[in-house]
Design goal:
The chain is of the alpha+beta class. It has seven helices and 16 strands.
Amino acid sequence: MQSKINTFFKSPSDPPPPPAATTDDGDDDLANWKWENNQHTIINTYTRTRRNPNPIPSPPPTVIQKPVVVKNKKRSYAQFHLELGQSDFLLRACSTCGIEFTPGDVEDEKLHAQFHKRYTQGIQFRGWNNERVVSSDKSGRVIMVLENDPSSHRNKVQEVVKMMEIEMGSGWIANQHCKVYLFISLQKVVGCVIAEPIKEAFPVLSCSDDGQSASAKKREKKLSPTTLQFGNIVFQREVGKRAAKVNVSDSMDGRAIVCASKPVAAVCGIRAIWVTPSNRRKHIASQLLNAVRKSFCTDELERPQLAFSLPTSVGKALACSYSGTGSFLVYKAV
């Protein structure tokens, strides 16, 4: 090992010392020294490859396109509400037409205004080429629509019936055997009567009997004391309501109509009658009923011969006023 160190520090002009005889002691240092003294030349040969005249085209790289997100620069301002248990949260029902809408929503309020106008003032009607006019005067005309009329006529009737169902309920107003009478005024349908053929009806007990019974009840109530006093101690009596006993009755919206037990013969039944709210108190209902009496049968009917289908309190007042008696006819519409 020392010889290696001396050789490393020896100047290159000095001749190299003769190799000393060494014995193979199993150390690889001598073999490495011999290999380092020999001059080895490593030659790397490179051969240029010829260009392929028909190269195989490489597949195009797959390009992954990211979805383009278009951001709206305009800000949308939304009105938020606090829900604190309100019964009419967001939606509000109109007390006149019954439609529900959202206050503050421009589109919703516009639709409500259009429907409210049609319901209160009448449905637009431009007229037909072949109208079945029953009667006419300065205020308007009454036309009759039958089941066999063109589809445009029957579609207009269905549009009017939908307005009637708001107050009277749905699913019972019209059927295939009915005759429909429309009152037209200023190119609008402002009233409608639906009549049907019947065979019997029941006379209603006179309205005057109800009035006498009500007054008698008031007198009995005044005569009967409600307090009982013993010296300075006063006892208040609790008055309980008793249900009225009737023989035959039909109810509509909680209002009872008492009628006779034996039916009488009848021909025409007024199934439903309706006038737009803005045109009421203008005798339009009376004109419609007059048209029904004149055109429903071959012979003209008398006013007491018209039967009404379970009228409400307003319908009961109309029937009493038009028939001229409290014992008008009623029937149950099927």
